[in-house]
Amino acid sequence: MKKVLLFVFFIQIVCLFAQEALKSTEEEYYDFLSLQGIVERPTLGYRTLSDSVWEIPENTEHVWQNNNLGSTKVLWQSENQGNNWFTKGFFHGFKYKLFGPDWFNSFNTAAPYGQNDGALWQGRGYNTSLTAGARIEGYGFELTFKPMVTFSQNLGFEIMPSVYDSQYGYIWGYTKNIGIDAPQRFGNTAFWNYDWCDSEIRWKFYNFTAGFGTQSVWIGPSWKNAMLGSNNAPSYPKFDIGLQKTEIIIPGIDWNIGFIDAKIIIGYLSESDYFDNDESNNHNMISSFIFSYAPSFIPGFTIGASKVCLTKWGNDFWKYINPFYNSNDVYGIGEDQKMSIFLDWNIYSVGLELYGEIGIDDYLQNGFIHGGIRYPFDTLMWTAGLKKTFAISKTKSIYGELITEVTFMELPRNKGKQCYYAFNFHHQISQGFTQKGQYIGTFLGNGGNSQIIQLNVYYPKGKISALIGRNNPDNTYSYNTLNNHNETYKANLIIGLNSTYFISKSFFVDIGIVYNEIVNSQYWIKENDEYKTSARIDNFQFSFNIKYQF
User: Fold this and answer.
1) What are phi and psi of 217, to 5 degrees?
2) Which residues of the chain, if any, have pLDDT below 50?
């Protein structure tokens, strides 16, 4: 009888922490709270659903304190939580969390528009995705099942001639079928997709972790345009091993020198149906190494480094997870390596965050030191950003957040004309930095730039956001193919409004509208041997998202 009562008691206990999907409404709210010093960020240099465990201290006041942001519940726990070093390394009992359901809908009137939306392809017309799931933890093991189902109406729009086997392929590459698997359109019919999304099985011992699954990995501090890893593409199977955010204390003197996190990832990438007709090259291997350090003597400051390598599936994986391996095997099976370093400083005493990331592709010729002395801008890409919170009305609990981010990933000057270089491209990896036809990092990696400003206003029942930005998605195409005429550049103007409103404590809706002016959508029109700017496209996206949080 006592055991039954104990079970009934513990099943009602709610843990004051929650795991949130990348770029979700809840995750971005927790990040807003971290700028105010209300919560501590659970990660340093990388984020996944399983790592993104946010905890709000009990009895802490915050804007959405009366709304249900989700929580993990204890199903049962043992009275004995371990009596030695080994048994204290994991929770003795079972916890669970329910995710969603989360139903997203959008409609693009004239052209595709969308980013950081996982497996969903937001083409012209109606698009929708539905995700829900559950997670159970016990005795160090964690099982998460959170798939996604998507639908794209995929209506027709004017595309440019493809240089690949598929007529829907991208507009340029090194040679036929060597370049990038980034279709302009995914066929000519509507389609459904099933994606495993944030599903995985994991084992955790203290802060050591190892897992296999398909959870997306966000690498670095970028808010919008992550260079080396994001949730922009469909998920892919991967194995990872590493340390979650871990406090480092020097033994003997009990000196806390700060926190570290580190992860090694080995993944299996797949080609889309709209690239080439060669079945022998459909899969690539991606290997990632991520390390970050937050010193205790500079509160809120983090420095990190990441390396990603692409090679054909079946190559020796062990050498590519070595962060100091820097050879590009031109005559072998082929490989493409990229790396970045970042700085992030969350000065929560004044509600300010400053961050920046610098990346290079293939490393520098003649080695990192001598190559850097000779020409440090070779294949250089960078992102810089700022976040600032401020009070609008403390008595009514209304607060603002300003976010701005600038990204530059264009063709370096030393590459010269007809080099056909881009961060996402590589002549040894025919599909480029993609998964099933979508970019693993940011679409700007083909040689573009972006500038974004967003204002968020949080109030007790929701949030209102306004966004303005512009970008060039691929200036490299104009530099190398169109004689660098200014009038050939393609650009996007983006103006958006979004509102999140909690209808009840656990149920909220998101409604948004975006105006996307596409300037020179076809890059150029040639008439009488002269380049002429193509027509402007005025695309509107209407979006509606509903979510229930258990």
Assistant:
1) -120, 125
2) 1-12
Residue 41 in tokens: 């960020």
pLDDT at 243: 96
CA–CA distance, 493 with 519 (Å, rounded to integer): 8
Residues 173/178/180/183 CA torsion (nearest 10 deg) = 90
> Model confidence over 356-390: pLDDT tens digits?
999 988 766 666 665 666 667 778 899 999 999 99
The answer for residues whose C-beta is within 8 angstroms of residue 170's C-beta and 6 or more apart is 162, 163, 164, 179, 180, 181, 182, 183, 184
Q: Which amino acid makes up residue 338?
A: K
Alpha carbons 226 and 395: distance in angstroms, whole number? 37
Q: Is 218 within 8 Å of 22 (Cβ atoms)?
A: yes
Inter-residue contact 355 to 344 (CB < 8 Å): yes
Structure tokens at 285: 């291997």
H or E element, residue 211: strand 208-213
Q: Would you say 366 and 374 are in contact if contact means Cβ atoms under 8 Å apart?
A: yes
- For the record, the structure tokens of 128 come out as 């929708």
Structure-token match 């086997």, residue found: 165
Closest C-alpha among 299, 397, 372, 382 to residue 340: 382
Residue type, 274: Y
